[in-house]
Amino acid sequence: MEDLIQKIQSLGFNKYEAMSYVSLVRIGTSNAYQVSKDSGVPRARIYEVLNDLEEKGIVLKEEVNESILYSPLPVDVFLELIESKWKDTFKSVKKELICFEKKGPEADTRITTLKGEENILSFCRILLRRAEKRVVVSLWESMYHHLLEDLEKKLADCSLKGMVFQIATPLPGLEVHRTTDYVNNIREQKWFILSIDGKEMVYGHSTEQKDTAFYTDDPVHIYLLENYIWHDVLVNRIVKENAEDFDSWIAPEREKFFKLE
What we know:
10 helices, 2 domains, 53% helix, elongated
């Protein structure tokens, strides 16, 4: 119940208003004393709270046999009213913020930390919607499946290029990284890179491992990481076209390169 009260508060009501409306929904048409008793709203405040709800159109008040009774706005009507107001507010805020953004000074290139799986995935989807010409990715299976629907939508108007790991049948334009001991044993070191039009990029660990990623519009970062993906694609193609034991040479060479001694 407390969770429901908090969610209703997030729709623009204070705690007592939320408690009173939920109580009326539960017990039906009642007088102020009954609402106070059921909801826990102090009797000294209940009339003020119910009158405020009446002014907002959320509670209906009527006089019956010299008694004042209150009824809740039907739940489906209440929800439709809230949804309509939210959409109007969203459109208004969006329009004004975009106007401010266009009028603002040219921003310096930046690197921004993104926190939380949902925020990271939402940011990736927003970038994909903004893509106009080219999408470049490096994705392991979990992030690939999270973004698959959005990637499919861009195939009609954007080229899709890059590397995927542990995906059997990737979208056109994406190459599957060959199976190696390094890939099979990488464990928590999985990462992702998503770049659009060579202008914006999100990169970091796959979200099931770490809820932190980074956004950048810095040309140097984008150039280096897009070239990293191209290098991965190129090596993958070379190995496929050449000797079967090529990976047995690559593995020790990688180990020597990254060794700290």
